[in-house]
Design a protein that fits this description.
By secondary structure, this protein is of the alpha/beta class. It has two domains: about 5-255 and about 300-310, Rossmann fold (3-Layer(aba) Sandwich), CATH 3.40.50; about 325-480, no CATH class. The chain contains 19 helices and 15 strands. The protein has helices at about 20-25, 40-50, 70, 85-95, 110-125, 140-145, 155-170, 190-195, 205-215, 225-230, 275-280, 300-310, 325-340, 350-360, 370-385, 395-400, 410-420, 430-435, 440-450; strands at about 5-10, 15-20, 30, 55-60, 75, 100-105, 135-140, 175-180, 200, 235-240, 245-250, 455-460, 465-470, 475, 480. Helix 4 crosses helix 5 (about 110-125), helix 13 (about 325-340) packs across helix 14 (about 350-360) and helix 17 crosses helix 18. One of its GO terms (molecular function) is ATP binding. This is ATP-binding protein. Keywords: ATP-binding, Nucleotide-binding. It holds the Pfam family DUF87.
């Protein structure tokens, strides 16, 4: 089951969408000059995916705080809290899966970099049990990952760049999917931009930025002029979550708006020059009112903000309880989808476990039906072709293998299935695939390990064909080449 996030239409008028699951695994880079529609694009993506995934927005201008109303995002004003408090917010966000807008509007450039680095590091360093999938949107990413020297201390620059690099390079294993937006690719650190696999390129005019954008889109340099001709709100898109070939997309409308608006032309006052002069100069010699000292409001206590984050994800009390769903078929369907994914063999067990939990939630099972250890065993069984009846039909075979490491259960069940059905003995290559590797030697070591535990007996005949017996069950495979 996949979720397609509608972001607009292509040149033919057909709907254009982003595969949310693929986006979580491959990250996104958005580029375009000021006024090209980057913030509008991000807002559209955030609004359409808000109900499906946790969202964290690093917002240097405070443009996205309006998401807090209709979509329930918690707004944290970075200027009101210390670095240690910001780190606590980040950890609590991961624990409770709260969607958050970190507004940095009240800070200077160095303060924004320091606060964003602390927040991203707090999310990155969260405990493994809190590695839930989340979209992490960083607007004006060139501020936090500059390509060259900037007017801040070297310590702050390094900390901010390191946090952004961790987000884009290593965040995937922790469930963090980076979405970065920048006005100029030339100002963004290359090792940060290079980790994105999906691109949405808006209007830009400088040759160096057009050349880099064309390279990322796989276009020839002579085709780069097309980027200069894009209209506001139009983007060239490419990536596994969007399209395998560059396609022009017109971003659709949004439901919320930024607090600030762009300049709008309004009629000038119809006043004569003499009257205007009188208005401007009248009363300048009179004493003005006493100056008023502005006292900024006191920020809410840290405990109140942490409590808001905790309760933001709680369901409304009046919401009726959803009907109970049998997790058994859901687990089997989610495992089948994982095994059929051609990329699953190259992904770590921790990342597959997160993917499994996402699939279960999409099908209505919100509490994890399996822990990490049980998932490893069920994943191995699924790779062996056993998706259901683990506690019934396969209970005797599993009882024989009691004590085997979780990751070896799949290889054992593949042999057991062939032995029970009188099929040819699985090859080393097939057992390696079930074990989650491409190494034939590792597959052979797995067989040797299980045989040393007296669970299997291997026999090789004069023609070099191998058969394997499970003595406790009386099952034997047909001879076949190893």
């Amino acid at each position: 089951m996949t979720i397609q996030v509608d972001i607009g239409t292509d040149t033919t008028g057909k709907g254009a969408s982003i595969d949310l699951e693929e986006l979580l695994a491959t990250r996104l880079l958005v580029q375009g000059n000021s006024g090209s529609g980057k913030s509008h694009l991000l807002r559209r993506l955030l609004e359409r995916s808000a109900e499906h995934v946790q969202q964290v927005i690093i917002d240097p201008e405070g443009d996205f705080v309006t998401l807090s109303g209709p979509y329930g995002h918690v707004v944290v004003e970075g200027a009101d809290y210390s670095i240690n408090e910001v780190v606590k917010f980040a950890a609590r966000c991961r624990e409770h899966r709260a969607s958050v807008v970190l507004s940095l509007e009240g800070l200077d450039a160095e303060g924004q970099m320091r606060c964003a680095a602390a927040f991203l590091s707090g999310m990155f360093d969260a405990p493994r049990e809190h590695w839930y999938p989340a979209l992490v949107v960083v607007d004006e990413a060139q501020v936090f990952a500059p390509s060259g020297a900037v007017e801040v201390t070297e310590e702050v620059r390094r900390a901010s760049l390191s946090a952004m690099t961790n987000l884009m390079c290593r965040g995937r294993k922790r469930g963090l999917a980076g979405i970065i937006a920048t006005q100029r690719l030339a100002k963004l650190a290359k090792n940060v931009a290079a980790e994105a696999s999906n691109f949405l390129m808006g209007r830009t005019f400088l040759d160096i930025d057009m050349a880099r954008a064309a390279d990322l889109l796989g276009m020839e340099r002579r085709q780069a002029d097309a980027i200069r001709d894009l209209q506001r709100g139009n983007f060239l898109a490419l990536g596994p979550a969007i399209s395998r070939r560059p396609v022009s997309i017109r971003i659709g409308p949004v439901e919320t708006a930024a607090r600030g608006t762009g300049p709008l032309l309004t009629p000038l006052p119809q006043v004569s020059a003499e009257d205007m002069r009188q208005t401007l100069l009248d009363g300048l010699d009179e004493p003005g009112p006493a100056p008023v000292t502005y006292v900024p409001p006191k920020p809410p206590p840290v405990e109140d903000v942490l409590h808001t984050i905790e309760v933001s994800t709680a369901p409304p009390p009046e919401r009726p309880a959803a009907p109970a769903i049998d997790p058994g078929p859901v687990v089997a369907e989610a495992l089948r989808a994982l095994v059929e994914d051609p990329d699953s063999s190259s992904r770590s067990a921790a990342l597959l476990f997160q993917d499994f939990q996402v699939r279960c939630r999409m099908m209505g099972v919100h509490r994890p039906p399996l822990d990490a250890s049980a998932f490893a065993r069920r994943l191995g069984a699924a790779r062996a072709g056993v998706f259901e009846d683990m506690d019934e039909e396969w209970a005797p075979a599993i009882a024989v293998a009691h004590g085997l490491p979780d990751d070896m259960l799949g290889a054992y069940l593949r042999i057991a299935r062939a032995a029970r059905d009188g099929e040819p003995c699985p090859s080393d290559e097939e057992l390696a695939r079930v074990y989650g590797t491409t190494s034939l030697r590792r597959a052979q070591r797995v067989i040797n390990y299980i045989e040393e535990r007296q669970i299997l007996v291997t026999r090789v005949d004069m023609s070099g064909k191998r058969s394997i017996t499970i003595p406790a069950l009386g099952w034997t495979t047909m001879p076949a080449a190893a």
